[in-house]
Design a protein that fits this description.
Number of helices: 8
Radius of gyration: 19 Å
Order of helices and strands: EHHEEEEHEHEHEEHEHEEH
Organism: Candidatus Onthenecus intestinigallinarum
Pfam families: FtsJ (PF01728), S4 (PF01479)
Strand order of the largest sheet: 8-7-6-9-10-12-11
Family: Belongs to the TlyA family.
GO molecular function: methyltransferase activity; RNA binding
CATH superfamily of the largest domain: Vaccinia Virus protein VP39
Number of strands: 12
CATH architecture of the largest domain: 3-Layer(aba) Sandwich
Protein name: TlyA family RNA methyltransferase
Oligomer: single chain
Largest sheet: 7 strands, mixed
Length: 268
Amino acid sequence: MTKKRLDAYMVENGLAPSRERAQAVIMSGIVYIDGQKAEKPSAQVAPEAQVEVRGAAHDFVSRGALKLDKALDVFGLDVHGVVAMDLGASTGGFTDVLLRRGCRHVYAVDVGYGQLDWRLRNDPRVTVMERTNARYLKPEDVPLGPTLAVMDVSFISITKILPAAAAIMGEAGAFVSLIKPQFEAGRERVGKKGVVRDPAVHADVIAQIVSFAREMGWCAQALSFSPITGPEGNIEFLVHLLPAARATQCVDEARIAQVVAQAHAALE
């Protein structure tokens, strides 16, 4: 019999309710194949293999939290005492991560309504800004003066949001943003079910974001990829942006190609 992807195997064998949840559990580091810790959802599992889930998976309010959790680790960012904006907050996965890591206050911004987790909604360190379009944010909307913006938005390019948030934060600011190729590439380069699979398109999309940031006077200090895919299997990327005057390095084409290759190797 043929081998199967670990995330698919877990769903078929009742170890997870969906592939998305399976991916989150795997990336939590508690899934083992024949006694060896599984490193990625795409790991191949033989029919006779013994797959175990040891312990509890993450208890964040959403699996999306794993994206920012990885980004802060990989980029080496300490957010303790920081005032932040969570742009595209949704259920609050990113807000949850920020608070657990010691953020002083988070503005949870979303165009939607009623999505933010109840626990976060009632946390005094959170200002809930529902029915709010991040494109039009002004300094007076966030009077505590945020110096960090984290972003996970859908159905819009992040280039539409970066300028307003950058203007609010100024030279003291920083972005940690998800790059979703399916919302950046243009319809002609997006496949069935809204999935972008071509590594060349991924690299091109990232390069466009890096170039846009440069035109704003900002630099892509670091780049990585999301530890989990989007709902339809889209590979997504993580970028750390700083004002050019504060950046110590800028992501180049070679680094983009390297990260894209790493992402495909880990998640396909």
